[in-house]
Amino acid sequence: MRGSSHLAIGLITGVAVAGLVPGVPFSPAGIALAGFSALAPDLDHPASRLSKRLGFAKNYVRWAFVLVAAVVAAYAQWQLTPGADRRLAFTVALAFGLVGAAMQGDSTRKLALLFTGLCTVVAGLYTGFVWLSMLGCFISLAPFTSHRTYTHTLWAAAAWTYIGHLANQSLGWHGVALFAGGGYVSHLLADSVTKAGVKWFMPLVDTSLGIPLIRTGSKSGNVLEVVICTAYAVLVLALIVSRLQF
């Protein structure tokens, strides 16, 4: 499915969790978390909404390599005496410069997400929030997997839900695990009605499961996505209204 449809389904799932699960407060932040979680599995896709947002630094990654090359070259020129160490430093500088100059497209995105994830890991270690470091690990590793493989599994959904559970314990915000897990699973369920399906139990079972109703990107597929989102929203609204009446 398209990212916009995943986001809509995730937000509707967040409303469902807030409005139907006893003891979970109706929270705009929780609904937003469900929407964010619904986009998380597609961090493995270069064109996904979340990849573009979290990879905000990708335009600067190349220049970072060039800057490192310049710093190493300057250090070699002014601090090292002629010899093997100096030649090695110039070689390293040249390598960084060439990599930075040649880098473009998906490789830059992956490095930007790796950098974003590692910064999140460090922030988690500094604050003592294990869930934040785990989130950073997910962001760092997901871009280096093939699309609809490891991030589109039951195990990834469980890990994401557990991150929410740890955040719940650290922040005292009841319902985080439900918002996070519900949003993530909504993505897998939505992709399960596309032609490609989802390998829920990979790597134990390398078989795509689902109902092949939608061809993502086609006109008919786009229409079906709108119909599914609308029907889902109406169903959730009806259930919430009926719950309020009793």
User: What is the strand content?
Assistant: under 5%
Structural class designation: mainly alpha
What's the gyration radius in Å? 22 Å
- Tally of distinct domains: 2
Query: Span from first to last CA?
Result: 36 Å
Summarize the biggest pleated sheet: none
Percent helix among the residues? 55-70%
Structure commentary:
The chain folds into 2 domains: 1-45 and 147-241, no CATH class; 48-145, no CATH class. It is built from 10 helices and no strands. The mean pLDDT is 86. It is elongated and about 85 Å long. Helix content is 70%, strand content 0%. The chain has helices spanning 3-20, 28-39, 49-54, 58-79, 84-102, 106-127, 130-141, 154-171, 176-191, 219-245. The chain is mainly alpha-helical.
Task: Lay out the secondary structure.
Blueprint (H helix, E strand, L loop, with lengths): L2 H18 L7 H12 L9 H6 L3 H22 L4 H19 L3 H22 L2 H12 L12 H18 L4 H16 L27 H27 L1
Helix pairs in contact: 1-2, 1-9, 1-10, 2-9, 4-5, 4-6, 6-7, 7-8, 8-9
Keywords, please?
10 helices; 2 domains; 246 residues; mainly alpha; elongated; 70% helix; 0% strand
Concise summary:
Helix content is 70%, strand content 0%.
